[in-house]
What we know:
Layout: H1 2-13, H2 20-51, H3 55-83, H4 85-104, H5 109-137, H6 143-171, H7 173-194, H8 211-216, H9 221-233, H10 236-251, H11 258-278, H12 286-307, H13 313-344, H14 351-380, H15 382-429
Amino acid sequence: MALNLALAGDRLRGYLPHRGAGRTLALITFIDSIGTGLFLTGAAIFFVRSIGLTAAQAGLGLSVGGAVGFATTVPIGVLGDRLGPRRLLVGFQLWRAVCLVALVFVSDVVSFTVVAALMAIAETATPSLTQAVVASAVDGESRVRTMAILRSTRNAGFSVGALLAAPLIAAGSAAISEIMFGDALSFVIAALILARVPLTRVAAARRRSGFLTVLGSFRDWRYVGLASLNSVLTLHMTILVFGIPLWLIHATRAPVGLVAVVMVLNTVMAVVLQVPFSRHATVPGGAPRVLRLAGVMLSACSVAIAAAAYVSPWFAAALLVLATVLMSLGEIWQAAGAWELSYRYADPEREVQYLAVFSLGLAAQDIFGPALVTAAVIAAGTAGWLGLAALFLVATLLVGPATSALDRASRLAATHDSEEEEEPCCALTA
Length: 430
């Protein structure tokens, strides 16, 4: 019995960062994600019942906000390199809290759209800023592992937040406002703790060029190409939220209650498997390999979803569960590979800007992914899912050439820097 408890304790410690800063970041993520879980569970009802918006008005406001967030992501990355990612992330946590409180007093679609856009600026910038803070707070070997722990923690926090939101939603419109205040409080607490997180890595020297000059000087199209391929693989999120539920309802005979099972299964897999599976991304050659694995899993997932339309209800349910497992594995491997590769090929002097560029793919998926899956894939039926499977395979095949091109560019840059360092020595000898 004691041995089993010891083994369980060792496994549990494997889901915690080794160092103090990493553990503090995990605590911040848990608090933040509880509030976000509250918001995600009750937001749609709040928009309609409390603000009085139609579903179409809420969707339009959020879409405009997403576009604004997309447009501001890279400029905020440049600002993060100048001010420091931790300082900027603290500011954005407080910014989000103010926006959530403002939502309680919104009463029309115009003001809602303005607040949604202000929120989206912070929401879209947060992933790259968080990734940069992790890079500054933990050593290089622990970056991907820490990001994996934060992702597992975030999924656990979402579940807690969803459970806390349930009684507030049941209590009626007045209580739903408490969801906004609860989420705002979580951001304030997270900001206060984040401000005290020690940064162990000395920041790289920042370029003194003007803001607009730095913003317009980004020319690393190989990095953009890899980010674009990664963007294709992030469609797993839209498949989970829109693809599987809508296909289940309209094209299969599987029981509708399976949608809840699918969501829980994905959450459990993300919490339990993200940390151990992410280790494969940090070994030599591991990051491109796990990104390719993600593409293969997502392609197989798409085929399984298509096949569910042609079988009996229980076989359809089994295929959709299988598709969820494959999709979840794709999600886990895509995240791990993306973290490692985005860190590896980022310019140390412009790290936040590079990470912001990489995160644009995620923002683009949020904007265009739902339309692609609903209006193109599902509307085309089986052919649409098979086409999506082919798209995933194409992205998978291109990962190798994309990373090889970045490796060659890195070696050339290192050789050039080495030659520049040797020139003064040679000139002095002459």
